[in-house]
Amino acid sequence: MVQSLSHFIAICSDSIGETAEAVVQATMRQFDLPNTEIKRYMNVRDEEELRQMMEEVAERGGLVAYTLALPELREAIKEEAVRLNVRVVDVMGPMMQAVADTFNNDPFEKPGLLHRMDEPYFKRVEAMDFAVQYDDGKDVSAILKADIILLGVSRISKTPLSMFLAHKGYKTVNYPLVPELTPPAQLYERLEGKIFGLTINAEHLLKIRSERLKVMGLPNNAQYASMERIQEELAYANRIFGELGCPVIDVTDKAIEETAGLILNDLLR
Predict the structure, then answer these.
(1) Residue 155, annotated ligand binder?
(2) Does the annotation list 153 as a binding residue?
(3) Among the listed ranges 80-84, 90-94, 260-264, which one has the minimum average pLDDT value?
(4) What is the spatial distance between Cα 134 and Cα 194, in angstroms, rounded to a whole number?
(5) 154 annotated as a binding-site residue
(6) pLDDT of residue 231 exceeding 70
(7) Is 157 annotated among the ligand-binding residues?
(8) What is the spatial distance between Cα 175 and Cα 138, in angstroms, rounded to a whole number?
(9) Is 158 exposed, middle or buried (0-12, 13-18, 19+ CB in 10 A)?
(10) Cβ count within 10 A of residue 185
(11) Binding site annotation covers 158?
């Protein structure tokens, strides 16, 4: 007998399931449902494998979010949903049907097209390598090579935001702003539209830094996590943002995806 958590959501895909999981994760942020397990079933390509998955979901009282390109698997999961009384959600199907109906065009119905090794794929890989190589101001010369430059104080989520944007195909470099260090001269070399300043509520940053010190086993009374120091750093950062004339985004309580969306909307405007 499988031991069930309070809530169980299965991701079923004939590829890697990234699209369906992103939708599920975004949805779950709207609910207070602790102890929820989200499990991916990837590369599902035959009906027997699909049936086994559905039986596990039924036993655990869960639901399924699926992205299946093959028509036979899409039909099979609907049949299993009726047989086992399991709720299933077709993440990609309605959009595919809408495109087909509107533009009078049939889908390829091939699994894994999102992750095929084409030009956009290699662009993402190159951007990811760039973000890792030049993370946290390792080489200021990267500023002139970047599509996006992120500026902000320590522990404001510059690195994860850089990686997220890189996954979208944008070469992103981030540089920490510290009152004791003069910003790189490259930032002032006509980079309008590429630079974005990140700021945050001081009390929120205090909690983040205090937790960081705790994880590292350091005393929580270090200057790094003092309100006076944090306010000094944020004020300094805002002064630099003003000098550069760049957009400033308050990341307090924002998900990485939300901040990235604001940046890309501004960048592509």
Answers:
(1) yes
(2) yes
(3) 90-94
(4) 16
(5) yes
(6) yes
(7) yes
(8) 8
(9) buried
(10) 9
(11) yes
